[in-house]
Structures are given as structure tokens and as C-alpha cells.
Amino acid sequence: MPLASYASDPAVSRGRRYAEPPAPTRDDYQRDRDRIVHSTAFRRLVYKTQVFLNHEGDLFRTRLTHSIEVAQLARSIARALQLNEDLTEAIALAHDLGHTPFGHAGQDALNECLHRIDPQGPGFEHNLQSLRVVDRLEQRYASFDGLNLSFETREGILKHCSRRNAQALELQEPSGVGRRFLDGTQPSLEAQLCNLADEIAYNAHDVDDGVRSGLITIEQIEEVPLFAAQLDSVRREHPGLEGRKLLFETLRRLLSAQVYDVIEATRAALCEHRVQRAADVWVAPPLVRFTPAMREQSLALKRFLFARLYRHPQVEDTTQRAQGVVRDLFEAYVADTAGLPALTIDGADPFRAVADYVAGMTDRFALREHHRLTGRTVFESHGQAV
Ligand code: MG
User: Fold this and answer.
1) Which residues contact 61 (CB under 8 A, 6 or more apart)?
2) Dihedrals φ, ψ of 353, to 5°?
3) How many helices (H) and strands (E) does the chain have?
4) What is the pLDDT of residues 212-240, one digit of tens each?
5) Residue 198 C-alpha to ligand 1 middle, in angstroms?
6) CA of residue 191 to ligand 1 center, whole Å
7) Which of 70, 119, 177, 311 lies 20 to 30 Å from 37, alpha-carbon distance?
8) Is the Cβ–Cβ distance between 77 and 193 less than 8 Å?
9) Residue 44 Cα, ligand 1 centroid: separation in angstroms?
């Protein structure tokens, strides 16, 4: 299917930071996607978690399976809207590369550690770190640090950025990926799409993982209208269906309903704002969107997950312990930077080098290092220390 006139076109890409000859058989966005898949940071996502830690069970989402689910949803919507699927996939697969071990718990702890040392500094923010991974920390190419990705892929990876961090980026790279946060403009439709696909993916899979863990039940989620409507339709068509099949059939429909809603609402927004070219997207309001009714329903699901899952005492207990691990690691390495692998030492800022090192860890490597450095066991799994 041909690309829409407002899709991102690699032929008019704003290019890479270091000029490279074109690849013989792939365009720049295909090449970006391939570079991401081959990166070390991408492989680490398999042992990084979001809500449930690896040792709690083999079937919970990890950052890797989450990223693949985001890519699937985003590509499916991109194809329907005739957007650039390769750029969409590249952004989706890279969007969580900067996450610390233990999900948001790890990020918050690392942010606190850095702010204690430098209250005015940028702290730690996973979107900025994802950019740092692809721009600097990956060490795979002879001629440059990082993966040297195209501007549009990097722009999509940096989905949020504070004004202060955007100003710092602007100093390093004038009119670069920080600029839009100062100008108040929007990124490409492919970047906007990955943002929304991320939300659709984690809302659905956190329901699945929440039920699997036993921390929430199908009966509780029935208080969420979006879920209840799909559950009702499944029960009407398949009376007597229960257990996993009932849950999965409901979640499948919940995903489809949101995907079709985004496609319809986005088509209407593109029409309403008379978008013709990719450049029109930058100055329009965000165009990849839910209908107002679906936005409200999605928010209600999010509120439910916050109250019943992310704030569940068992999840909060895990969060606290995980934050303790990250803090202990940070302090131990700051006290003895000689123990760090040479590559991670950033001569200008040893604290940032420690943050990069800790952020890059998988959950299980962090726990092993923590045990080696402190002799303590933080989590038990089936009676075994992990
Ligand atoms: Mg994500």
C-alpha cells in the first residue's frame, strides 16, 4: 500500500548525526529498526520488568515482550493509516531502551540519587536515557558512539522532555530533537502513534498480568466500563465460557476496540486539520488520538490499574525493595568507581557514569551485584534467594 502524503518519508529524512553512505537494499528507517534489534540494550530488555519482577513468574511481561506488543499494535494502526511502518516499528522497539531495572521503581530511585548529589541537575529520566543509549552508550560502530539513528527515529524515542532538559539538548544539538519541546510543536504521526500504542498495550497486558498474579480478579475489573462492555459481549456470544479463555477473548476485543477507535478518530482529525504533508503535522495539535468517549474509558481503566494493581501492597513492597537495591548499588559504585567497567566511566561526570551503569542493568544482574556488594538477599523465589 502506498504511503499517505503525510507519512514520514525516508527520502526526505533530516538525516543522521554522522553522514553514512546509503545501504544498498534498505532505506534509513529499516536500517534504524535493524540497528535497534541488534543492539545490546535491546537484548537486555528481556530481563527488565515493569510491574512484576522476573522471579515472580515466567509468563509476566518483560520490557522486551512489552516492546514487541507495542510494535505490533503500532504497525497495525500505521498500515491502516498508510503511515511509515518501518519508522513506527523502529520507534516502538526502542521506546523503552532507557529504562532501569525494576521499571519505574528503579527510575525513581536513580533520579533521587542523582538529585541528592546535584539538586539543580537533570536527574534521571527514562526517555532522555533511551536517547542517550542510542546516541552514546551503545558501542558497536568503529566511527562513532551510539547507533547513529535517523532524526525521525530519535525524535520518536524522546517522547517527553522537561523544558530544562530540552534547553540542555538544544545547546548540544541546535534545532535538534529537543527543539519541539521549546517550540511546542508535535513530532511525526509515527511518533505520536507509538505513544498511544504504548498506553493501549500496557493497559491491556497489565490487566492480564494482574489477573495472572492473583492481585486483581475479573470480577473487580468489571467495575471498568471499557472492560465490562467487552466481557458482556463475550458472555452473550459464549455463555458458560470462563477462566483464561474468557479473559483473553475479552482482552482481544478490548485491544481491537481501541485500535479501531484510534484509526477512526485519527482519520477524522487529519481531515479536520486539513493535513496534507508531514510538515503540517508538526504545527497541528496531537492528531493520533482516541475519540473523546474512548479517551474517557481508557482513563478509567488506567485509574483502576493505579488503585488496584500498581498501589497494591504486594506491588508496593516489591517497589520499595527494588528501590533499595538501586540506591545501594548507586552508593556502592560512587564510593568506589574503580570497580566499574572502564567503558562506562564518563570522565566529565562520574555520577552520570554510575547512573548509566546501573540503568543498563537487568533486574537479575542488579540483584546479583547487590548480593555481591552487600551480602544481602532482597527477594526470595520459591524458597530460593534470587
Ligand atoms: Mg513502554
Assistant:
1) 49, 50, 51, 52, 69, 205, 206, 209
2) -65, -40
3) 18, 2
4) 999 999 999 999 999 999 999 999 999 99
5) 5
6) 13
7) 177
8) yes
9) 15
